[in-house]
Amino acid sequence: MKPTPASPASLDESQRSAPALAGGLSSDGQPSQASAVLSRLGRLARGLWRLATINRKVMIGSGIIAFFVLVALLGPLVIHQNPNKFTTNLMASPTAAHLLGTNQGGQDVFSQLVLGTRSSLSWAFLTGLLVVCISVSVGLIGGYFGGAVDDAFSLITNVFLVIPSLPLAIVAVQYFNRATITIALIVALTNWPWGARVLRAQTLSMRSREFVTAARAGGERSLRIIFFEIFPNELTIVAASFITTTIQVLLAVAGLEFLGFGDSTTISWGTMLYGAYNGGALLIGAWWWFVPPGLCIALLGSGLALLNFGIDEIADPRLRAFRPARRRWRFGAKKAVQS
Amino acid sequence: MSAVEAGERLLDIQHLSVDYGSGDGAVHAVADVSLALRRGEVLGLAGESGSGKSTLAYAVARLLRPPATITGGSVIYHPRADAATKEPVDIPRLSNAALRRFRWNQLAMVFQGAMNSLNPVLTVGAQMADVLKTHRPEMSKAERGERAAELLRLVSISGDHLRSYPFELSGGMRQRVGIALALALSPDIIIMDEPTTALDVVVQREILEQILSLRERLNLSVIFITHDLSLLLELADTIAVMYAGKLVELAARRDLYRQPRHPYSFGLINSFPTLRGARRAVTGIPGSPPDLRSVPSGCAFHPRCPFAFDRCVSETPPLQPYSAGQSQQVACHLYDDAAGREPPTSEEMTARYASVASGRVAV
Amino acid sequence: MRRLIRRLSIYFLAIWAAVTINFFLPRLAPGNPAEVAFARLQQVGSVSPATLTALENEFGVNTHDSLWIQYLKYLNNLIHGNLGVSTTYYPTSVGAVIKQDLPWTLALLSVSVLLSFALGTFLGVVVAWKRGSALDTLLSSTMIFFYSVLFPWLALMAVYFIGFKAGWFPFGFGYDSQTTSPGLSFAFLGSALDHAVLPALTIIVSTIAGWMLTMRNSMITTLSEDYVLMAQAKGLGPARVMFGYAARNAVLPSVTGFAIAIGSVVGGQLLVEIVFSYPGIGNALYLGIQNQDYALADGILLLVIVATVVMNLIVDLLYTVLDPRTRQERSA
To answer: Which residue among B117, B122, B134 sits closest to C235, beta carbon to beta carbon?
Structure first.
């Protein structure tokens, strides 16, 4: 539900290759083995660590994400109040006992926020993963087989790319029960086309590379070639697409929850916002109720976006800012001193 | 014809150095290069990719992009005797506004990518008009159109193409447009950066003929950059050969043709089949140009040179006449009297390169 | 022309797909939730037989027609602009509700989207030109935050901090209904404008980041093109190089991105309208959802989808104007 700041490279998908990041992912044309895939993944992991420490954006981005992951994992151990417990201390402003005050049911907002991290984060990543699975399947199969299969897949992709995803999701979600999984499925089904388009273009250009031709000549089955030969070589793009998608999905799920389609028994950032909006937080001025959940969404999203832009910078060095050398002519300054 | 000794100086490049990046990681792309361009002369700059030839030319035009910066030296431009301001100007020290006036009026460029140097969304006419509007604000729209059509005719393109977009033209036509654009303000100097490289051989030949005939008619002063030294042997008056950011040989065309003195120049000439003239054996130079981040010590060419000896590893040879009183200059210890040996003849060079190529002598 | 026909067929298919999904979903959903709404409508009484039939068709209730016949009848109703009757605003038809609310949405949307695209693109050009500068660092990092902001949350913030606390602008409804009434009077227009400031600002701030970051990347890539260097070599002024050569080319991928993103922006605006109780279709949609008024919600969402498709078409035409290369007949 946001304009996608695709770098020109990703709009002009064919140009977006997978260099830099996939330092270890060279297409070596060897018959693939599970071990080869594993060692590729190992090299990727090492490469990722190196990158995380090279680029500032990647570093800050992964730091923010790691923080929220830790909160989601360990947070519930830290909070000492039941986030669901109603008390008579209604709409209390922040105090030492209630770091972020209480809501109109007297529930502790801070505990809710910590617990909500778990739901929002895990559903964002799971849904993002689901979206990427759909994108990868549609994009790789269409791009690899070409012909009628590709025509059909491309048509479906382009058609769904035009239909705005949030309105479509609302159309769909209103008829179903209010469980988070329903929202996740619907969001996944309405957000896959963009990634599929990027991956299709990449697969199209990869189809004619030697290592694919060699595998085909060696009599490997098509699906095996697609998922064991081509897919590992597109991991960078898949990763970038996963990150972008996760931001979209995080916002889409929260948006639907804000509209009241969320599961009222689950605490998440989105349902907190719904509760705050409908519980009159604005009228009473309970800023501690509606500010934190949205801020968390924006921060997590920023972390993901930073990571994505950092990877873009690594893949396309032109995007990096040159810090020391400026356009200014060095002698200009010297001359000014002299005169 | 040979202009080394004749003609007034138009451009004086003195001790010019260009670095990529700064601090410890700085790469010296051009190191202490001194050159002169005379009026009416075609100065050829030759070398493999990474030799610094393009960087040198872009530094002269002050078109370097970060992280490349000029770190020292000067580029003095001497205006015509009848020009309004006769004061020589140092291009690197021009103010931004003065630089903009200087550009295209005095120094124009023809870029390598015929495809990429024209703005894809503007018509040929609009791109010509852009130049005239900026530098000749007094011209009327009709005059601009007339001038643009005249320029196109100069490079044998019909005036109708003023309304064409670059993608509607062939590669050769685009390069002609590029040349016509460069001529728009009748500049003193034109820098041509590999103007024929991206084209197929026939078109390459046509463009070259075009440049030669224009040069004849307009008495152009050109800095012509190419990796194809044999091309320069047909075109240039003076030829400068660069290797790893340094000038290794500077000679009149005739002298270099008769006998290249630097083993590198010799290898370079013989790595291209000549389009015209005597057949030579194409041998090529073993190895590849050095990574500028780790340039070999002494003479940077020594790891690839079939004649290298101990001094080449330890000591950088200065650029000087190969023999007293000669105009042909070379930076090579082979010609140093102190070396106590006779410089190799052409035949020896051919033989040595051939044996290196066939693997009989280890370098 | 071929390109345009291809795009047009995709747009047509997109609308058809949305309509078809809309038709089948209530029938697929467990227990057909539309029956509830339908039952409620019948309780209201005095519903004309024609309306009943239309709703029966829309939701597949109390009908003996085959699915195929229901589908055709549904399509026929849509083509005649018959979107059914709203149970929330009974007996007003969905079409009438939309007709009343749509101008508000369109006015707010067009102004804020155009402003944000223009401003974002301009900022992208400037920071790319001065990349690495303090301005670039500051704007780029701020924008990464706003890129990930949830529309309705930003709306809540604007309502509370700028509207409620600071009191700079009104923060609810489309105009002051106590002092003015809709019409072509200065008082009304002024009031409407005043009320539109905060919603517009919210939409601008939450979308501007996307445009700016897209343009920045695209611009940086374009700046390394030879024709930009050539423009500098020609001695053209910085403004001419920056806009006539670099930005003029860099904006092309931005325009494509605009087409892809416009649907999300419209979706976001619906959420913003809800927070501001703005009298547009977003607010009507919210009421529809809360009252399980499926006809109203579906009608609005179909309209939004059609509007998005139309905007895509406009962007396509604009792109043809901007990029001469697409005007040439080539089978790409």
So the answer is: B134
Q: How far is C127 from chain B (nearest CA, A)?
A: 16
Q: What is the crossing angle of helices A147-162 and A193-206, to 10°?
A: 150
**Substitution target from C147, C291, C319 for chain A, most A beta carbons within 10 A:** C147
For chain C, the chains sharing at least 3 beta-carbon pairs closer than 8 angstroms are A, B
CA C53 to chain centre: 32
pLDDT the model gives residue B359: 61
CA-only gyration radius of chain C, Å: 24
Q: Of the candidates C215, C222, C203, C227, which has an alpha carbon nearest to the alpha carbon of residue C256?
A: C215
- Say yes or no: B353 contacts chain C, CB-CB below 8 A: no
Q: How far is B122 from chain C (nearest CA, A)?
A: 8
H/E stretch holding B238 reads strand B238-243
Tell me, yes or no, if C10 comes closer than 8 A to chain B by beta carbon: no
* Beta strands at B42-46 and B329-330: parallel, antiparallel or unpaired: unpaired
Contact C324 B134 (CB under 8 A): no
Using alpha carbons, select from C264, C261, C151 the residue that is nearest to residue C199.
C151
Q: Name the one residue in this structure whose structure tokens are 């015929």.
A: B114
Q: Check residue C164 and give its pLDDT.
A: 83
The whole-angstrom separation of Cα B303 and Cα B313 is 8
Residues of C in contact with A191 (CB under 8 A): none
Report residue B80: phi and psi, to 5°: -55, 155
Q: Which residues of chain C make contact with B130, given a CB cutoff of 8 A?
A: 231, 234, 236, 240, 244
Interface of A with C in 111-150 (CB under 8 A): none
> What's the pLDDT at A18?
35
User: CA A220, CA A213: separation in Å to the nearest integer?
Assistant: 10
CB contact under 8 A, B63 and C245: no
| Structure ipTM over 0.90, yes or no | no
The mean pLDDT of B207-218, rounded to a whole number, is 85
Is residue B290's pLDDT more than 90?
no
Shortest CA distance to B189 belongs to which of B10, B348, B5?
Answer: B10
Q: Where are the alpha helices (DSSP H) in A163-230?
A: 165-173, 180-191, 193-206, 210-217, 222-224
State the first-to-last Cα distance of chain A, in angstroms, to the nearest integer: 57
Q: How far apart are alpha carbons B96 and B113 in whole angstroms?
A: 26
* B316 pLDDT more than 70: yes
DSSP run (H or E) holding B57: helix B53-60
Residues of B in contact with C230 (CB under 8 A): 109, 111, 117-119
Closest CA to A249 of A270, A231, A278, A265: A270
Please, which residues 61-80 of chain C have a Cβ atom closer than 8 Å to chain A? none
Whole-angstrom Cα distance, residue B5 to residue A322?
44
